[in-house]
């Protein structure tokens, strides 16, 4: 079946540092890939998505490129802020799963210090 | 657009009581909604897929008689935790699928409901 693997956290960075959160996936076919963010005590918010190979999703300074050759969708941001502290989930849909169900990675907690 | 709400946001109940959680898509119609459970510092676990006008599809290991799901309209799905026990304490999150023509459907998530069973 489909699966998503993320780097384990927590990731602790100083403000304005460069962020990379690795995400790799296993799926057949052509899944769509997503990054969701969860702020403390809240539900998930869609951060960005990419639907086909070489697509780049971007939002709020975050970027991720759909790399089919390496089955990866790493999240990057050039300069993080304290307000970016949250848990980030990589997810896919449309691989082996029917009905556009999402398969989530384990989540990576990001802590940004002033 | 694409806002999903949940009510209540936090509920505390006594063991043995039943608790109903509502999930609403506020500005779009959702034929499909999903219910997830999230334990502290863990990822989301899909409990069931809720389809408007038909029975929910439960994931393996989820008791359908304990977690009753009703999707009575295109904007409302409810999850009822029957005879709740302390081990049911968790963060319950719903999502609604927004179908898009010619593009990938995207799920939009509610803010979650924290259930504490004493």
Question: Could you describe the 3D structure shown?
Answer:
- The complex is a heterodimer of chains A (114) and B (118).
- By secondary structure, chain A is mainly beta.
- In chain A, 0% of the residues lie in helices and 50% in strands.
- Chain A contains no helices and twelve strands.
- In chain A, strand 10 and strand 11 form a beta hairpin.
- Chain A is globular and about 45 Å long.
- Chain A starts with a strand and ends with a strand.
- The mean pLDDT of chain A is 91.
- With 118 residues, chain B is mainly β.
- Chain B is 0% helix and 53% strand.
- Chain B contains no helices and eleven strands.
- In chain B, strands 2, 4, 5, 6, 9, 10 and 11 form a seven-stranded mixed beta sheet that branches.
- The termini of chain B are far apart.
- The model of chain B has no long low-confidence stretch (mean pLDDT 90).
- Classes of the chains: A mainly beta (114), B mainly beta (118).
- Chains A and B meet through strand 5 and strand 6 of A and strand 5, strand 9 and strand 10 of B.
């Amino acid at each position: 079946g489909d699966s998503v693997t993320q780097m384990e956290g927590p990731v602790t960075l100083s403000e304005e540092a460069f962020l990379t959160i690795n995400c790799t996936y296993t799926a057949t076919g052509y899944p769509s890939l997503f990054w969701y963010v969860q702020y403390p005590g809240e539900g998930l918010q869609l951060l960005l998505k990419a639907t086909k190979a070489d697509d780049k999703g971007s939002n709020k300074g975050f970027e991720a490129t759909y790399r089919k050759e390496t089955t990866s969708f790493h999240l990057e941001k050039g300069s993080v802020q304290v307000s970016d502290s949250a848990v980030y989930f990589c997810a896919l849909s449309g691989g082996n799963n029917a009905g556009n169900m999402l398969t989530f990675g384990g989540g990576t907690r990001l802590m940004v210090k002033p | 657009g694409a806002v999903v709400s949940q009510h209540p946001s936090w509920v505390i109940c006594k063991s043995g009581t039943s608790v109903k959680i509502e999930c609403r898509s506020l500005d779009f119609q959702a034929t499909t909604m999903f219910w997830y459970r999230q334990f502290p510092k863990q990822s989301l676990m899909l409990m069931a897929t809720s389809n408007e006008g038909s029975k929910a599809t439960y994931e393996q290991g989820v008791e359908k008689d304990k977690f009753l799901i009703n999707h009575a309209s295109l904007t409302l799905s409810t999850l009822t935790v029957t005879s709740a026990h302390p081990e049911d304490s968790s963060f319950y999150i719903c999502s609604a699928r927004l179908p898009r023509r010619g593009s990938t459907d995207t799920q939009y998530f509610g803010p979650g409901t924290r259930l504490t069973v004493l």
